[in-house]
Specification:
The chain has three helices and seven strands. By secondary structure, it is of the alpha+beta class. The chain is elongated and about 135 Å long.
Length: 143
Amino acid sequence: MIRLIIIFIIAVYSFSGSLTYDEIADMVEKIKKKREGIGIRDLANTPNPFTIVKRVKKHKKIVEKKKKPTIIKIVEPTHILTAILNGRAFINGKWYSLNDKIGDYEVVYIGETSVVLRGSRATKRLKIKSKATKINLFEGDKI
């Protein structure tokens, strides 16, 4: 409490020290002079300085989002021919013969290094991917 009083006294002394007695007397004389204010008629025409703020509820506008057209992408299955042996083709890990069905496709040709699959929309030709096209089963076979 004593600290607050000391701080207050120091503040008052520092502010009062900047003005002289004559300056203070001059200010008092200016305050004593009659000031002209606004007339009653003018006062009635002035806008109210204390405005009332009305809160307006904002209505959320519901907008229907336009639906994007659905794109249906048809992904063709990948067929990988690995081997051909005795008129049978090894495709995607299974053995197939002529006229066998692989999904929507039918095996229509089996050659030495390729197979032809015919479907309702397209015909595919599969080739063996490995570099060796023939396999020696016996020592006397030629490559």
